[in-house]
Design brief:
Four copies of one chain form a homotetramer. Chain A is an alpha/beta fold. Chain A folds into two domains: 62 residues, 2-Layer Sandwich (Alpha-Beta Plaits), CATH 3.30.70; 264 residues, TIM Barrel, CATH 3.20.20.70. Chain A is 31% helix and 18% strand. Chain A contains ten helices and 14 strands. In chain A, the strands form three sheets. Chain A has an eight-stranded parallel beta sheet. A four-stranded antiparallel beta sheet of chain A has the order 2-3-1-4. In chain A, strands 5-6 form a two-stranded antiparallel ribbon. In chain A, helix 3 links the parallel strand 7 and strand 8. The longest helix of chain A is centred in the C-terminal third of the chain and has 18 residues. The first copy, chain A, is elongated, with a radius of gyration of 23 Å. In chain A, 61% of the residues are buried. Chains A and C meet through helix 7, helix 9 and helix 10 of A and helix 7, helix 9 and helix 10 of C.
Amino acid sequence: MIIAMKPGADMDELHHFAKSLEKQGVKIHLSEGISQTVFGLVGDTSGIDEEGLLAHHLVDKVMRVQEPYKRANRLFHPHDTRLAVPGPDGAARYIGGGHLGIIAGPCSVETREQILGIAGAVKEAGAGFLRGGAFKPRTSPYSFQGLGCEGLDLLLDAKKETGLPIVTELMAIHQLEVFDGVDIIQVGARNMQNFTLLKELGHCRKPILLKRGLAATVTELLMAAEYIMAGGNEQIILCERGIRTFDNYTRNTLDLSAIPALKKQSHLPVIVDPSHATGLAWMVPAMAKAAIAAGADGLIIEVHNNPEAALCDGEQSITPAAFGSLMDILRKYAAVEGKAV
Amino acid sequence: MIIAMKPGADMDELHHFAKSLEKQGVKIHLSEGISQTVFGLVGDTSGIDEEGLLAHHLVDKVMRVQEPYKRANRLFHPHDTRLAVPGPDGAARYIGGGHLGIIAGPCSVETREQILGIAGAVKEAGAGFLRGGAFKPRTSPYSFQGLGCEGLDLLLDAKKETGLPIVTELMAIHQLEVFDGVDIIQVGARNMQNFTLLKELGHCRKPILLKRGLAATVTELLMAAEYIMAGGNEQIILCERGIRTFDNYTRNTLDLSAIPALKKQSHLPVIVDPSHATGLAWMVPAMAKAAIAAGADGLIIEVHNNPEAALCDGEQSITPAAFGSLMDILRKYAAVEGKAV
Amino acid sequence: MIIAMKPGADMDELHHFAKSLEKQGVKIHLSEGISQTVFGLVGDTSGIDEEGLLAHHLVDKVMRVQEPYKRANRLFHPHDTRLAVPGPDGAARYIGGGHLGIIAGPCSVETREQILGIAGAVKEAGAGFLRGGAFKPRTSPYSFQGLGCEGLDLLLDAKKETGLPIVTELMAIHQLEVFDGVDIIQVGARNMQNFTLLKELGHCRKPILLKRGLAATVTELLMAAEYIMAGGNEQIILCERGIRTFDNYTRNTLDLSAIPALKKQSHLPVIVDPSHATGLAWMVPAMAKAAIAAGADGLIIEVHNNPEAALCDGEQSITPAAFGSLMDILRKYAAVEGKAV
Amino acid sequence: MIIAMKPGADMDELHHFAKSLEKQGVKIHLSEGISQTVFGLVGDTSGIDEEGLLAHHLVDKVMRVQEPYKRANRLFHPHDTRLAVPGPDGAARYIGGGHLGIIAGPCSVETREQILGIAGAVKEAGAGFLRGGAFKPRTSPYSFQGLGCEGLDLLLDAKKETGLPIVTELMAIHQLEVFDGVDIIQVGARNMQNFTLLKELGHCRKPILLKRGLAATVTELLMAAEYIMAGGNEQIILCERGIRTFDNYTRNTLDLSAIPALKKQSHLPVIVDPSHATGLAWMVPAMAKAAIAAGADGLIIEVHNNPEAALCDGEQSITPAAFGSLMDILRKYAAVEGKAV
């Protein structure tokens, strides 16, 4: 971290300030320039509050050289993390490190027939994981809120029948009690900075699929991962799912440049949710292909056997048939990129 | 709600679709135009999912005429809500309905001396409520996370000594156990769509200060209020605290037009947080005045006796002296607007 | 266009209003609902001002069913437009309709050696067109503003030597006098709504590469194209080059979902500028691949022989060698997509 | 400007790089830290391209300490600029430096009766300047484009009759020929970075009302002013008129914090356009008051005698009667702020 002090600052005051900073565990390299003095901070600056520094009357500008995340940082972990998720058969399914993880399934679990039907279809088409919502975060309290525990039970049945590990969203920490059979726990975009929840998930031993918040920067997403990792759980999958911008043609604006950005900054696998990002089923194949081309380690795609009758997000769900065609072309893209799918 | 069906849609299919919609409790007024048929939905459409409709192959466009919130809606509650918050002396302090509620205090409770000193100072300057964070949502897991229960105890001491009702943030529902003495519970911007938390607060009987999310629309803020109100707790104070935009001169972009917007749509009181919105202490007075001029029912302002040494957000805290001067001018603005402060 | 009138509006007033609208050349289909009357407008509504309607005291909401653009609209021109740009040899280079147009070259023309060297290198790597700025729009009046006419002359030399058609930016209409030898005229993002310029270009008979404004919606980009097309020049190439959002990891946020969006709404070819969108040379290959995967009809890429010494935008320029490697992989992507490159 | 070099950079290379920078007219103060070397640049850095530096393989991060604008910078011109605009009677009307400039009138000049009627009404209510569009930038080529020269003539008549100086928008430099009688030339938001136009206006000797672009930062607005000022015309009025964000309740998001931001950075007067910012006539009074409270030096407000029949932007125009009431309350605000209106 480099701090430019105000021009004309008193040198005694500057030395006094430098000492107070050193009490926070860093060393200060003080450099007197012609017009202003510059502090170079050496050591672990992750606990030093940039904005707090700006409150000080001697400080002009602050520039962070080292990122504030550590465990998520590629600097300290140069190789890609490859997550291994064991299926009901004990064999691992991989995400990251050259392996594409394809997660597919309905927005919400609705009925036994629905989830078993879709699970069978996406497995056949080549999906590696089954998604399905049991507890649903909905903008309106009057909208369908998910089947809850009953939905979880149906997901477990589908897992048993197809052998696909399951991914579902956790909305509150007390729900962990019923998440025993869940293979990957999803933290939704709206909970990306629910820090209490993140801290608790640090003590959990399951992979966490962490979705980027609607207005979260790349750094904030990595800091959210860091919250979980600081607790000891390093199995994180980052998920780009669209950010909120002025543009309203699509539901959100899919930020595919976040893929190379996240992969440069971090060793964690990065997947993309083209369904929530666009909110438009017809756009999902184009954006799924683009995500793989941009370097994503996988996809999470909404598939519904009857999108028109879906209890939520039907307009962004593709049919099992469309998913099958998409998988065919994704395999070609994976081949070009030298990745396993 | 008005639904424009696709041009050339089959009339039998349209009638069938209309019937399926009527099962959701609305009446359909079907109007055959020259180029396309239009459905007018009459009745309570708050449970009908706009996006679900768009998934249907017959549907072209959807326009919501009635807002999806009910209890927060001014349509069904034309008069301004005036919240009465009893202080330790039993007498009520008001927010809304012509009363400005001025909430002031430090970002975080740090020490006994700090909170008692600031509480006394802001009371003398004319604040009606004391704010102070005990549980702090911080972007980094390595930053100061607040004093927790000890901080709450210090706040209660300050309340006892000054008679000011207290406002503090709740980050997780289990913290409610220790919130007995808290007068107004704050829900932070990052938890605005923590629906599990909102639902639980619906069963609580304390006023909730609900902060707008960084990327939340006016409608989404009102839907978050509706989540709480649907549970039976109608004591909500809405708080504009800046939204995230491309502009980075200020920490967030204070959206003062949200005040007249929220007040047109809803009867709930609306206050403004100029400290978090701008992140710049020197800008707080200008934006506090502007908020009152734009029709706000109050303010929540960070005040710290020694901003340079604050454990968080020092750069946006004003001193007690600056707060005193601000109150002097705010009283003039209140007089112009015919409001009590 | 569908207009929902205010509930309880007087029927005589409504009929009077309907008549005044019909004077603007549309037919009104008036439908009395239970709670409110709805007008369905039939005919050419492109000249009717949505926002003007909302000023009327009888009007509640307005929903546009038909897009306000006509010549750019795929509805009236279902097949993809394929632009043919003749080179100095008279043979056409294509963009759109299954042909990828790859435009490469430096941000600014700097010297004869520079532009000839880069032109030769990108041609050898497989580029179809040469780009280079002579008149440069710079944020600061104190930055290098381009070589002007001298830069144009050097571009023409490079065209002569390599046979590559050239693309360069026009900043003001009087520059047209010296654009005789230019093959594709670029309109920059900052001039996308310079309507005077657009109108004049409507009378020009050269292809226009129209870049999306930093804060322009898909509809606004198509309306800008419509301005040119309304004047008779239908040779437009649309270019997505990143939009401005809260995210600041990249210079702009590349909105690849604009590709399928634009191609659904319009028949015009759509290309992508990954260099300006990201501002980061190392990210260009990933986003170039993603653009092709998302359905783009081409790319415009900054290539510089010595990015470190470039007079502008060096940090986003790739070297000729990197461009060569990128072309190798792009050919594989083109093969998967069944496109000629 | 401070440049942090990459850790481990070769010292000879660093010295060589420092020398190459010094050729651009700055002095380098090189400071060897423990982990990385820092360059401090002293002198005029306004011509040094931050982004160009980042392309260099030795450079890690760059921090600009001095703003890139000079003539617009308050640092070199500490006192507020007060613009004096002479009316037809030769007496000056002031904007800035304690004087509120109130500009009112219709979006477009439509007829003689309209403009004379509105001009008389706003003068009587206390406006200091008359606005009215003759050349209109419209999103659609099929919308009303303004009366052009005929509109200018009508404006001049209104000026003659009322004595109000007039403000109107210039869309292209050749229109200057007919702008002789115009007192303040408006540059619209869409032309804020039409650099060719800005340069030409630098040679003009009339005050320029420069509107902030939809996606322009505070710095970019000041750089646009700098373009004009660099040519010798220092009579600039900056205008905040709303920025584009995700929020769509209002047409744009009025960024009132831009007022204190611009006034801290620059000595130029800052006015606000609440009409275009909100797009909602009923919201104009609240935001006009808030603008004055936030420190604006004036307002530009759309007033129309018959908003429902306005040829453009009727939904954001207030009636002369509403303008009169607003002026009454604005005078009270001006009194609180100690400003002349």
